[in-house]
Amino acid sequence: MLEALSPAELRLRLGFDAGGETPNSGSIASSARGCVRAWRTPPRQRVTTYLLRQLAAMGYDEGIARDAVRDVLDRLIAIGDFVPVRLDGKASIVLAMPAAVEVAPGHIVLLGEHDDDDLVSDGLLARHRPDEGDREVMSFGDWIGRPAFEAHHLRRGGMSMGGSLADYWALLASAVRHEGLPISVDAARIVSAPPNAANAYFGRHSDAMPSGRWSNATLDGTYCGVRPGRNEHHWNPIILLRAGGQDYALDLHDWDEWNWALLARGIAQGAPERHRADSNAIAFEHPIPMQYQRALTLLGTDGGSAWTWVMTPEASACFQSWIGSFG
What we know:
Elements lengths: L6 H7 L11 H15 L4 H14 L4 H17 L3 E6 L2 E6 L3 E6 L2 E5 L15 E4 L7 E2 H5 L4 H7 L9 H15 L1 E3 L5 E3 L22 E2 L5 E8 L6 E9 L2 E6 L3 H15 L5 E4 L2 E4 L5 H10 E3 L5 E4 L1 H12 L3
Parallel strand pairs: 3-6
Antiparallel strand pairs: 1-2, 3-4, 4-5, 7-12, 8-9, 8-10, 10-11, 11-12, 13-14, 14-16, 15-16
Helix pairs in contact: 2-3, 2-4, 3-4, 7-8
């Protein structure tokens, strides 16, 4: 016998927030894992279409739902729950080999193919469980790997792995002195104000006039900045050396290297980039590297505002310990 359900009743039945405008990431992740487990090697488009139809039946806006589904699938791939493959010419996804990551004593996160019930508590994207001692587990450090700035350090001529962020900034500062190309003083925009400046907020470089900690001009020094790109909406990430009214720019590999460089400069200058943390949330005051985002996706869930994540006290302690290991 078929049962008629209202959109709100369907949301509750499937573990979604009955009144929210944005679908819960953890519930989308559970539905996505169910699809992939049932279909084994489905094209990503098939999974997306199914989830969008499900969310439409629950009354979610199509645009919001499409963005949410794309974001959740990307993040499940990033943390290693799904593996992207190409089958018969189609972009497909499969469940990864089973793994368990220990984020605290007695607290693990399951990834990949597991027989466990797939419900996710508190809207978390990943599957957090008590460790009952019946699985082989890997440490969080083994899962996350070496700090990603080390790869940039090596690519730019660093001698070995294991250097600090201060070492990395010293290498960038040397590189811009020796390899930087002249750039118009008026062209570049830089993060000039320190994170502890009065009423400081990060701001934007792409506005008609730079805002927040961004500016066009400042004292001589070495800064993280941008230079104009191929059009008025495109900016290239750089390290900028300002000396005696002349600017020199060193192009960075991508924005992820720029985010690491910003962290490195703060450490080297004795004014580290800031974040606020308590027992169940972390809020950053600056853009963060992709490796940070990958870690936070495993450990918590979006906090509803930019650069903010909600997580358990155990997960928060795990993240704080990790970022403290390479500062």
